[in-house]
Amino acid sequence: MKTAAIVGASGYTGRELLRLLAQHPHLRASVVMTARPGATPEAPTFPNDPTIDALDLERLRAVDGVFLCTPHGAASEIARAALAMGKQVVDLSADFRLRDPQVYARTYGSAHPAPELLQQAVYGLTEHARAAVQGARLVANPGCYPTSVLLPVLPLLQNGLLQKGAPIIADSKSGTSGAGKAPSERTHFGSVHENFCAYGVGTHRHAPEIQQELGVEGLVFTPHLLPVFRGILSTIYVTPAAGVTVAAIRECLQARYAQEPFVKVYSKGLPELSCVQRTNQCHIATAGSGPLVVLVAAIDNLVKGASGQALQNMNLMLSLPETAGLQEGLS
Amino acid sequence: MKTAAIVGASGYTGRELLRLLAQHPHLRASVVMTARPGATPEAPTFPNDPTIDALDLERLRAVDGVFLCTPHGAASEIARAALAMGKQVVDLSADFRLRDPQVYARTYGSAHPAPELLQQAVYGLTEHARAAVQGARLVANPGCYPTSVLLPVLPLLQNGLLQKGAPIIADSKSGTSGAGKAPSERTHFGSVHENFCAYGVGTHRHAPEIQQELGVEGLVFTPHLLPVFRGILSTIYVTPAAGVTVAAIRECLQARYAQEPFVKVYSKGLPELSCVQRTNQCHIATAGSGPLVVLVAAIDNLVKGASGQALQNMNLMLSLPETAGLQEGLS
Amino acid sequence: MKTAAIVGASGYTGRELLRLLAQHPHLRASVVMTARPGATPEAPTFPNDPTIDALDLERLRAVDGVFLCTPHGAASEIARAALAMGKQVVDLSADFRLRDPQVYARTYGSAHPAPELLQQAVYGLTEHARAAVQGARLVANPGCYPTSVLLPVLPLLQNGLLQKGAPIIADSKSGTSGAGKAPSERTHFGSVHENFCAYGVGTHRHAPEIQQELGVEGLVFTPHLLPVFRGILSTIYVTPAAGVTVAAIRECLQARYAQEPFVKVYSKGLPELSCVQRTNQCHIATAGSGPLVVLVAAIDNLVKGASGQALQNMNLMLSLPETAGLQEGLS
Amino acid sequence: MKTAAIVGASGYTGRELLRLLAQHPHLRASVVMTARPGATPEAPTFPNDPTIDALDLERLRAVDGVFLCTPHGAASEIARAALAMGKQVVDLSADFRLRDPQVYARTYGSAHPAPELLQQAVYGLTEHARAAVQGARLVANPGCYPTSVLLPVLPLLQNGLLQKGAPIIADSKSGTSGAGKAPSERTHFGSVHENFCAYGVGTHRHAPEIQQELGVEGLVFTPHLLPVFRGILSTIYVTPAAGVTVAAIRECLQARYAQEPFVKVYSKGLPELSCVQRTNQCHIATAGSGPLVVLVAAIDNLVKGASGQALQNMNLMLSLPETAGLQEGLS
Question: Would the pLDDT of A331 be above 80?
């Protein structure tokens, strides 16, 4: 049995890790701490939850791996300490996702807090970085929206199936858990229920991340807020290269992901949030519509879009079976 | 006080008309009937609702205008009878929206039930057909999705602001009331709640209607089902012609709709469903995102997308003030 | 046309008053202010909403009536100023509901801020205080839960239909708008959606208010939080006096409220929230169950439970028709 | 590894059993069938779900235990066949819950389909029937509402803590999954969302079941429909015997359930649906309120109220660890 620390355990991604690790056969959460310096221990919200201890970096010495579930900006310092202790670190915040510190500064509004660590950070979209993750000491866990866009689009770019220079449009819809546990006007029940909106059009922080990983220009990204708690569904519009059919695009994706335990490419039908909630799955469907091809991808933003993928990465880093703790059966 | 008949009053659009007419200063619902031949009168679902009488076409002789709130296919025969009595008719079904009976047959799966009436039917997107509606005897009330797409896009096409031949992508999200009052697996609470899905990608019946009214090729239309009851939000992606800025697109829309009581073009911010629910408003915002311009349009599918626009049209046909019964104040 | 001021217009009850007054034929909101001293004007949340001005008590001189939509404790000082100007005041906060300042202090945790005004305050459960309200200068608008409990129970006590000394149990369920517009952990979307809970069992602040108005001992009041925005449904369990049947209880209520425009007593069926949402109605049903009689009462907590009843009271105080601005037709 | 059959697997309780068995270390679903004679196999709704085979009673010979997830009335014949094969049967329908066939006939409107089996059926409220369940061949799995009422009330009756003859009032609120998977007007999204209602006051079929198990007169049971999918919260009002305090009632429950893995009695705070969803737990709190004691009990109606308790019973019948497959960690 190996051990992990969860720093920032009082938020939604921290609690989701606790939920997953409770069923993990080889890894358990032996250190569960808040990420706020000086904060006192927190009693659990639910009767079965553990107490969340005060922050004490020294306790990280005792564990094998460290999950950072902090807001962006707060992870860097803890990562630096844990790496100095020789620990494997998976950072669920945005601190190490953008390779260029100037893009980070422009996107997050302040200088990068640990630019010296950027070089060693591996962008952990597991299915596209498995070998690098296995050897990594620091994994930047991908954002939830980027995961839902990159998994369906990357193989098409890699195989030259898309028309060069044409825009790639990601119309993404997320549940409110993506906005975190802290109450806000935006996530007040009276603001979300029986409502729906777009936000951050052309300005969302996940756009530079998606753009970086796509490696081509032309991304158009529009996030929306759904009145649900869990899940992201991205409807993605791409322009096939001359002569490329919908069938060719589907076959490319099916071939690419045939051996992947957590990606399923549909032959017919369309994924819904309910197909993937509480699982580490990404489900993808393809359809032709006028001159474009439509890709529909669904994930649980707290699992494949956050804590599940983080655990998938940590499993690899600690030489555990990649799917351990993530085989949840039915959604 | 003029009088109207509502045929098909037991569905959501019929009940919405009752709600609107209850506050109308110049028009009242004097005949309220089911559209199902042979059906017995229905007791009201809610204590304040009127009884819905059995179908009796002869009673239409007594009214000034007739609203048809029937399923598609069922409206034609009633329309024929009402027109023969010299009544003004607004049909909320799809029977008279498509000008070409062959497109109708292809889209709805059976021959058009009244092709001889198609010529006189006016497509009642009020802001773009006001004069024709005023003189019409038969108005085809637009579909809910088409209303949300045509209002923001038509002025851009008419003013040559869009790149010719580029796709026009409408990613539309609707509340469940668009699927009607009859229970189904798709609209079962357990299927909709905490869920979200796309459906009818490349095959939805509203696509030919939008295509017809746009008058250009290249529409890509993807409807989605939201876990809300009222409202449609369409996120629309268009390619500006060379040299056309987002500001130019916004100014075009603002100029076009400056005098319209029911269309509002934002200078900043984005519309949400809650801005338009229970109103006859269409709210539109514009934003640049990469190489494209994003239009966000919100309506209440039961009001501007159905019964409100139907009343707006009937007001014009009966020479009543266009906004009568539709000035609802705050949403 | 008479004029009213709304002080505290940025909350849910203030906005609801704006919505109602927008349709009022004889009263308009000419002064719309925040209740927070020193707060700057607030831009409207929704495009059609008015700007909310900074607090300026001098502006109250110009209006006929004053609505106070403030938190408890904050209304007293403004009420004192408005009364000194000779204005009619309806206070939607809890400041003047409890006649005994010691009960207020025990319930709200601080000394009453204006005990000298308590004597002249009329508890404005309109159907049971019409004459007093007409002559009142200061009306304490009832709480939302109390309105839903008192309307069905008071006539039964007044007519001696209940067994003396037996408990009166009110199991009440409210939408989240009752908790106000300020974000909190309790009303975070992630805390309310797909959840349900009881709270304040035996300790809720509305219990002393209900107890005071019932005038008998033995109230058991349990509030619950529903994942809906609008509405309260109270299920009330009473013990009939010897020989009193369910039919007798129903007939008592029907006789008592037969002439009331805003109370409906069912002969069959049960009210649901959807029967009363967005109306000033209280719907009541009765049923026998074992040894007890069950009363089910439904109101919209923002209308009959707050702003609608406040307007009903203000109409009376300003000698306007009692139902003006409140005849909303279908819900 | 032992094997089980699920007959009636296409409904919510059948699917929930599949979800639970997917994680069970000692029992797997080797036969998954519809319960409708003549029905063809059903493709799975979700990608990970198994196909549901046509009904073939002969296949039951191959399994160790049989779960019947059929509507009431349909289970008896299958139970008879399975018992004749010597199988252990857990029936999740209502067929064997009422010991008196006349009460069954009165409650369900038709003669009991297998009265000869009633004698051997054990009412499987596990914590109160453990020994009998272990030796049973046929277990009648309790209804969802009864489970939420009996667990908190039975120990109080058994220990004489309640005033004899006083009513026991259960005000219960259930998510829509209790009404099953078949679409209906009552469970249409547009009927449930932003709504709440009581139903079956004084007439619900679970009242005779609760009454039978309580063994005393005076039950008052009011079910309500919540706009959530999973969960029941029952607020129960009892009259303590002379001199019995709330603390005594809490201590009684805590002592009774101290060793039970699936019942938790709170020392402070109140259970919410979110504390128990997706777990086999029943959480209970106690509070004084006026002259009565309030018990708040929460379960997941599909787990402890149906499939989870069924599995708990089957584990006992097959001599497996009682908690196997039911230790789900965090909700």
Answer: no
In chain D, whose CA is at the least distance from the CA of B225? D189
pLDDT band at C329 (very low <50, low <70, confident <90, very high): low
Q: Which residues of C touch A228 (CB under 8 A)?
A: 193
| Confidence check: pLDDT of C295 > 60 | yes
- The 3-state DSSP composition of chain C as helix, strand, coil percent (nearest 5) reads 35, 25, 45
Domains and CATH numbers, chain C: 2-142+304-317 (3.40.50.720), 144-301 (3.30.360.10)
The single residue listed with the structure tokens 């030259």 is A160
List phi, psi (to 5°) of A147: -60, -45
Active-site residue, from D69, D144, D275, D282: D144
Q: What does the alpha-carbon distance between residue B95 and residue A74 come to, in Å, rounded to a whole number?
A: 60
D265: nearest CA in chain A? A47
SS3 per-residue string spanning B276-299: HCCCCCEEEEEEEECCEEEEEEEE
Entry field: residues in chain D: 331
A9 neighbors A52 (Cβ within 8 angstroms): yes
- Using DSSP's 3-state secondary structure scheme, residue A267 falls into coil
Q: State the helix-helix crossing angle for B144-158 and B246-257, rounded to 10 degrees.
A: 110
Task: Please tell me the distance from the alpha carbon of residue A230 to that of residue B297, in angstroms, as a whole number.
Answer: 25
Q: Residues near A325 by Cβ (< 8 Å), separated by ≥ 6? A: A20, A21, A23, A24, A25, A26, A27, A311, A315
Q: Determine the distance from the C-alpha atom of residue D267 to the mean position of all C-alpha atoms in its chain, rounded to a whole number.
A: 25
pLDDT value for B329? 55
Considering only CA atoms, which of A221, A239, A69, A229 is closest in space to residue A148? Answer: A221
Helix B206-214 × helix B144-158 angle, to 10°: 20
Give CA–CA dist C35/D112, Å, rounded. Answer: 66
pLDDT at C266: 97
Q: State residue B327's pLDDT score.
A: 82
Low-confidence ranges of chain D (pLDDT < 50): 331
pLDDT at A53: 95
Backbone torsion region of residue A174, taken as left when φ is above 0, otherwise alpha when ψ lies between -120 and 50, otherwise beta: beta
Check pLDDT > 70 for residue C286.
Answer: yes
Grade residue A48 by pLDDT with cuts at 50, 70 and 90.
Answer: confident
pTM (predicted TM-score): 0.97
D144 is catalytic: yes
Complex prediction ipTM: 0.96
Contacts of A19 in chain D (CB under 8 A): 329-330
Identify residues of C whose CB sits under 8 angstroms from chain D CBs.
167, 169, 171, 173, 191, 194-199, 201-202, 217-222, 224, 226-231, 233, 235, 237, 270-274, 277, 287-292, 294, 296
Q: Please give the pLDDT value at position B286.
A: 98
Nearest CA distance, D21 vs chain A (angstrom): 9
Best residue in D10, D16, D189, D226 to probe B by mutation, most B CBs within 10 Å? D189
Nearest to C47 among B18, B264, B328 (CB): B264
Distance from CA of C78 to the nearest CA of D (A): 35
Cβ contact B177–D190 (<8 Å): yes
Q: Please give the order of strands across the beta sheet that includes A121-123.
A: A27-33, A2-7, A65-68, A88-91, A138-140, A121-123
Please tell me which of the candidates D46, D194, D275 has its beta carbon nearest to residue A275.
D46
* Min Cα–Cα distance to chain D from B225, Å: 12
Q: d(Cα C73, Cα C62) in Å, to the nearest integer?
A: 25
Report in angstroms the alpha-carbon separations of A171 from A222, B3, B292, C324: 5, 45, 13, 46
Each residue of C11-69: pLDDT tens digit? 999 999 999 999 899 999 999 999 988 888 888 777 678 899 999 999 999 999 999 99
Residue % of chain C over a pLDDT of 90: 92
Chosen from C21, C27, C45, C48 to mutate, greatest number of chain B CBs within 10 A: C48
How much is the pLDDT for C113? 94
